[in-house]
Amino acid sequence: MIKRIIQISCTVILVLLMLSCKNAKQKLQEYVTTYNSTAASFKADDVTLTTARGYINDNKIELRFETSLEQNESNRVKANTSFPKLLKEMIDDNKLPKELVEDGIQFDAYFLADDNTVLVKEIINKESVGELLQQ
User: Fold this and answer.
1) What angle do CA 32, 129, 17 make, to 5 degrees?
2) Which residue intervals of 21-134 are DSSP H helices?
3) Residue 80 host element (H or E)
4) What architecture (CATH level 2) is domain 22-133?
5) Are 10 and 23 in contact (CB under 8 A)?
6) d(Cα 29, Cα 133) in Å, to the nearest integer?
7) Taking the model in full, what pTM does it have?
């Protein structure tokens, strides 16, 4: 009787563990939804709005950081130093989960000028995340 109860308990626990594990595509969808729902409270220098868009078939998330900066050379230079630091802080604070990168999700992050042209683009994937974290 006790052996039977233990077998049933182990089976139930195993099933629950399997159901609670999410695959990368589910994590991608959940991240995009959560990111966009909290985007209004996002604070960073020069950033006026941020949004995320998920591409399930490509295992990719696009992050857009709209700024109040004009498109010019001095702002591009400024963005080339400040944007990687912002992304590193987001990874350190788990606002950009390293776990997703390790699951094969690529982040295409765009730092946009006030006219929505790209000041800086960073691609965060398994190969580049280590380099970004060393900055």
Assistant:
1) 55
2) 24-38, 73-92, 98-102, 129-133
3) helix 73-92
4) 2-Layer Sandwich (3.30)
5) no
6) 24
7) 0.80
- The DSSP code for 68 is S
For 56, phi and psi rounded to 5 degrees? -60, -45
Q: What is the number of other CB atoms lying within 10 angstroms of the CB of residue 20?
A: 7
Domain range annotation of the chain: 22-133
Q: How far apart are CA 59 and CA 86, in angstroms?
A: 23
What are the φ/ψ torsions at residue 58 (nearest 5 degrees)? Answer: -100, 0
Q: Which two tokens stand for residue 128?
A: 């580049």
For every one of its 135 residues, what pLDDT tens digit does the chain have, with 9 covering 90 and above? 676 566 555 454 544 444 456 788 899 999 999 999 999 999 998 999 999 999 999 999 999 999 999 999 999 999 999 999 999 999 999 899 989 999 999 999 999 999 999 999 999 999 888 787 776
